[in-house]
Design brief:
The chain has two domains: 195 residues, 2-enoyl-CoA Hydratase, Chain A, domain 1; 47 residues, Orthogonal Bundle (Lyase 2-enoyl-coa Hydratase, Chain  A, domain 2), CATH 1.10.12. The protein contains eleven helices and ten strands. The strands form two sheets. The chain has a six-stranded mixed sheet with strand order 1-2-3-5-7-10, with helices on both faces. Strands 4-6-8-9 form a four-stranded mixed sheet. Helix 5 crosses helix 6. The model has no long low-confidence stretch (mean pLDDT 97). It binds coenzyme A (COA). The site of coenzyme A (COA) has 16 residues, from helix 2 and strand 6.
Length: 260
Amino acid sequence: MTYQTLLFETRDAVAIITVNRPDKMNALNDQVVEELRDAIERVATDATIRGAIITGAGAKAFIAGADIGDLAKQGSFDGKARSLRGQRILRRMETCGKPFIAAVNGFALGGGCELAMACHLRIASANARFGQPEVKLGIITGYAGSQRLPRLVGKGRALQLLLSGEMIDAQEAYRIGLANRVVPADQLLAEAEKTLRGIIANAPLSLALTIEVVDRGLDMTLEDASLLEANLFGLLASSLDMKEGLTAFLEKRPPEFTGQ
Ligand code: COA
């Protein structure tokens, strides 16, 4: 697919996806959503890509939410369909087994904050703002933000954001655990890439199964989740990467993982 609203760049196993509608604060219209679906699928299925960074074009916005013009036209059933479609795309990103980092370079509002929450880490520039302003528009979150936000920051803080519709700054997002780090704006992409490269230097199967066990385990009992962990721990014992990781340590050399 040729993208009209995204920039897609790959650099040594890292994909950098930039939502590119700066004149509209990178709002997610139907075309952006379709192109994001394609870009996420590309990351998920291209074996040469090990992880991705998602950011927004321009200095002001990461993504200022769903396109309010599109929302204004929707009826009940296409509203539901739009919500389910967005949820499916974010879930694909969250569960495809490769790490995604949101490099939040400005406003992350509504669907933008929801997309950032579906990424595995969020690195914010000092000028970033986060918020779920849906209640100010007579709607609610549609990309599962009502579910991911309390899982990330706890029910009380989530309800404060969801019910007030107010924005918080990057430091507050960091304080409540919504942002993993805050960095100066001019270092955001470099820091996000450095973080991602640090992650993908690790064993690929370990990364995929860590994502899986944390994601699935959170909705299980501690006992069932612990059993899932033990099963995946055992499964990795059949991988070449486990042998390589342990042998490399014992031989005092860096490991060379192959993802097998
Ligand atoms: N959908 C569609 N267009 C949007 C948009 C959105 N979510 N967010 C911003 N835009 C557009 C504005 O309409 C404006 O377009 P125009 O120049 O054609 O009039 C352009 O982006 C610039 O936005 P503007 O509001 O002029 O910039 P600002 O710096 O004064 O304010 C925001 C920035 C992000 C605070 C403000 O645009 C805003 O509140 N956006 C809506 C956020 C929101 O409610 N998102 C949740 C949607 S569910």
